[in-house]
Automatic annotation (TrEMBL):
This is ATP-grasp domain-containing protein. It comes from the Bacteria.
Amino acid sequence: MTKVGIVITDPQRFDAADTMRDAVPLLAALHRRGAEARAVDWADPEVDWAGFDLVVLRSPWDYAVRPREFDAWLERADSLTRVLNEPALVRWNMDKRYLAQLETAGIPGVPTSYHEEESSLVDALAAAARGTGGSGGPADGAGTPAHVVLKPTVGAGARLTGLLRPDDPAASALGRQILAGPGTVMLQPEVPELSAGREKALYLVDGRFTHAIAKGALLAPGGGLRGGSYRETPQLVEASAAERAFAEQVLATTATVTGLAMPLYARIDIVESATDGLLLLEAELFEPLFHLPLAPAVTEVFAEAILARA
């Protein structure tokens, strides 16, 4: 009997979202196929990782606030069993500076500058406020600086992420908070289509498209989240042939850049800009919510793919 661990974060320790939302239907599908499967908290010191034939990362969502501990767990688990997606890919994907590597390799994304020092960030915000660069957009019709997005390169669930005017003191304050983490600040111009809720998440299992989700806009202009908390409003949507091809291109380029094999699963977040076409927002390669309750057929595909790799 194949023994599979579905890796989550203990909901009692991390209550920002339902860490079992995908795990429940996936475990049921694995059980129907004769596997012995259970959900396990990555940080539980009592887990015998060597007792699994395979562990599959699904919702280790507090990794961003415990990155060193999570990295140590990856190394330990990898020495005892097979981990998917593979730890080398996870480490590469944890820091969003991977986006710069993909852009260099030909994948278009949102213009981004990276800042490890406050002086660099202050200069970039000032340039954005003048509409002269620094990853900020041009001024609006009234001459007011357009919004920018600030976020950490290591983060999840829109933590420490803000949609702010670059001349707003809250922008530099958020940047200082990220830097004090310690962390690196990503600075990007606002993408109007993204603020309008037109982001799409395309899901792939073994490199093959399964479904697409639109979750609506999350960031509130002026800082914070719409509605005051992280709330996705996921809906199944169609993905065009061009969007599917773009997602597949992202995975193929990732393989070229990293030298690693096709991941078991992926979520490719995209938006289509009126001025720049399809843009990559993120390639989530180790902890994306698949919204399996909305796509029950995908649950079966996912379970089959897991057992094929066990």
